Amino acid sequence: MTNVENTSGTFPVTKTEDEWRRELTPEEYHVLRQAGTERPYTGEFWDTHTTGVYRCRACGMELFTSKEKFDSHCGWPSFWAPLAEGKVRYLRDSTLGMERVEVRCANCDSHLGHVFEGEGYNTPTDQRYCINSISLTLEEDAAAKD
Ligand SMILES: [Zn+2]
């Protein structure tokens, strides 16, 4: 995890808030565009072990894979790394009286979740990308079925 940014910029996918509102459900809009958080243990993917690729629900960019997903038991889908650096961007988030690092899609700047470091998980990076299920869609790897 590098390059925590404080600035906004331009992104390959740019839409007005009206366009996002039309394309997303109210729940998706709240999390993706207003940095909301789904309640733990309620999302679609927190306990999913399906082999596949997770895409941004707002723009379709491939962001995470099942290879980096691990059981953090925190109630949200957790990954120890993104599919590749550059797929996501990082912003400093000081809301709720905490210093956290927000994770956004680098393609459309939609909110995904937060990343935490040094929690002691037995993973290659000791990072936990704590991502809202509602920010993602899962594309199952057809070859891995059965
Ligand atoms: Zn996106």
Automatic annotation (TrEMBL):
Which reactions does this protein catalyse? L-methionyl-[protein] + [thioredoxin]-disulfide + H2O = L-methionyl-(R)-S-oxide-[protein] + [thioredoxin]-dithiol
- Name of this protein: peptide-methionine (R)-S-oxide reductase
One Gene Ontology cellular component annotation? cytoplasm
Q: Where is the composition biased (Polar residues)?
A: 1-13
Which cofactors?
A: Zn(2+)
A single MF term (Gene Ontology): peptide-methionine (R)-S-oxide reductase activity
Top-rank taxon, per record: Bacteria
Q: Name one GO biological process term.
A: response to oxidative stress
Protein source organism: Arthrobacter crystallopoietes BAB-32
Enzyme Commission number, as recorded? 1.8.4.12
Tell me which UniProt keywords the record has, alphabetically.
Metal-binding, Oxidoreductase, Zinc
Enzyme class at the top of the EC tree: oxidoreductase
Question: Species lineage, top-down?
Answer: Bacteria, Bacillati, Actinomycetota, Actinomycetes, Micrococcales
MsrB domain sequence ranges: 17-141
Where do the segments described as Disordered lie? 1-20
